[in-house]
Specification:
Strands 1-2 form a two-stranded antiparallel sheet. The termini are far apart. It is 48% helix and 2% strand. The longest helix is centred in the first third of the chain and has 19 residues. A hairpin with an 8-residue loop joins strand 1 and strand 2. The chain is globular. Helix 2 crosses helix 5, helix 4 runs antiparallel to helix 7 and helix 6 runs antiparallel to helix 7. The protein is mainly alpha-helical.
Length: 191
């Protein structure tokens, strides 16, 4: 439920188009914010409803194979160099197929860079607040790509941190974001 509600929030704030890279970004933000609302107790989307769909920390780990789908086709890329260019007639240009790249980056940031999942509800709320604030205040383009978003979110976070406009629980998130975006190839240069 939180995932679907978040799509409405994204539409009302950043307005990312639901196709190709901007759609993968839209899908990922809904995944991660949905998990934050649920308490960030598991990396598996849909687990609380008994319908496991995908793993936001390890998107290359196939969680569920749909009827008629090959097991290897449900695994998602985890680095930008593995982004799958798809026709708009397939998954709206890969919105679900490619959401794993940003899912992994944002999840790593919440986990403090750890590739091992441990429940972090206390870290999820400040992160969600920062992300929601950025969606509302940064002038994203409706066709923003994954790299554009990574650079803009990191810059926004650093500006707020340098101006002492982050909460004590948000301190350190900026360096975590930057590191996570680099590990998924969404940032190559320091901001």
């Amino acid at each position: 439920v939180a995932h679907e509600f978040t799509h409405s929030v994204i539409d009302a704030t950043a307005g990312f188009s639901y196709r190709s890279e901007s759609g993968a970004l839209n899908e990922s933000i809904a995944d991660v914010l949905g998990k934050c609302v649920e308490g960030f107790e598991s990396p598996i989307i849909g687990q609380s409803a008994g319908l496991e769909i995908r793993n936001i920390l390890n998107p290359d780990d196939c969680v569920r194979v749909l009827p008629g789908e090959l097991p290897e086709s449900c695994a998602q890329p985890i680095q930008y160099s593995d982004y799958q260019i798809m026709p708009s007639t397939e998954d709206n240009g890969g919105v679900h197929a490619n959401s794993g790249i940003m899912n992994r980056a944002l999840t790593l940031a919440i986990l403090g860079g750890s590739p091992t999942f441990t429940p972090r509800p206390a870290a999820a709320i400040p992160f969600a607040a920062l992300l929601m604030d950025a969606l509302d205040h940064v002038a994203f383009d409706s066709e923003s790509g994954l790299e554009d978003f990574a650079a803009s979110l990191t810059a926004y976070c650093l500006i707020r941190e340098r101006a002492d406009q982050v909460t004590s629980s948000q301190k350190g998130l900026c360096s975590g974001l930057e590191s996570s975006f680099k590990s998924t190839e969404l940032l190559s240069e320091p901001i």
